[in-house]
Amino acid sequence: MCIRYGRGIQVKVIQLAMLAATLVVAQVLASMSGISFFNLQNVRDLLLSSSVTLIVACGMSVVILIGSIDLSVGAIATTAGMVSAWLLPAIGWWALVLGVAIGLVCGLVNGALYVYLRIPSILVTLGMATALSGAVMFISGGESIAVMTPAVIRFVQASILPGVPLLALYALVVYVAVVGLQKKGVVGRHWLAIGGDENIARTLGAGVDRAKILAFALSGTLAGLGGVLLMARLGTATVSMGDFLTLATIAAVVLGGTAITGGHGGALGSIIGVLVVSTLADLMNLIAVFPYWQDIIKGLVLVVALLITSFRQREFEVK
């Protein structure tokens, strides 16, 4: 136990060092372009962009923890945001609730197909993403939907402190709740056990099927919530607004210490991964990196994250 505890401390130190190095590099590169990365406005923009990613990453962390993957979070977020923006003039704030409910239903469908039909999660969620993308194009005709309710925009963009938007508070609440569920909840222990060894988890009496469905339901719900908040943050809903979330959340969760094969990690370290990924994205926009180079760099970040978790997994197996 002492060895495992010491190993965990070492991982956290490495993660914090990685975040610190990212922030230093961001400031240096921004300064070379005559910009201060840590000015109040940019800090606020960073919090706005990272908050939605953190919310969705919390759900993704649970799915990865059980040894699965959810490739539909971006499409769910886009669908939830588009439907909410579409219905907002007709039903008001209930449109936001409906957006979150859409995420929950999509997550339950993903989980049920994965558990009861035994279809690999990568195929189930890829199919869901494809179907939702088509549905969004049908609903919107490929056009953006503007948010015409100022109160909804203020609900997300208003500041509680200088440079700290309300959206950051919502993300923090979700983060604390999911971490608490993973650490203290019965289902959280079941998620960890399933990722470690599903057969042993069944032998010990864990409700494996129910826990798996709940993991996908939580991922879908938080993707729906993220999409609704992203719509309010942007002031418009577009057919591609959530596309970045799938890659960003997988990279953030893995960089945060969750093994891509499951059984180690969780939402706790994901906040560090989110800050690293969001800082890099914000920096590239700030210094006007060409979009195709941004995609290349984001892909490389994911590859590096997977390499890190692969080496970490080997360390656990060897020691």
Automatic annotation (TrEMBL):
Membrane topology of this protein: Multi-pass membrane protein
A Gene Ontology molecular function term of the record: transmembrane transporter activity
Keywords, comma-separated and alphabetical: Cell inner membrane, Cell membrane, Membrane, Transmembrane, Transmembrane helix, Transport
Annotated GO CC locations: plasma membrane
Pfam families: BPD_transp_2
Transmembrane segments annotated in the record for this chain: 46-66, 94-115, 122-140, 160-181, 213-232, 244-261, 296-312
Highest taxon of source: Bacteria
Location of the protein in the cell: Cell membrane
Function, in words: Part of the ABC transporter complex LsrABCD involved in autoinducer 2 (AI-2) import. Probably responsible for the translocation of the substrate across the membrane.
Protein name: Autoinducer 2 import system permease protein LsrD
Taxonomic source organism: Pararobbsia silviterrae
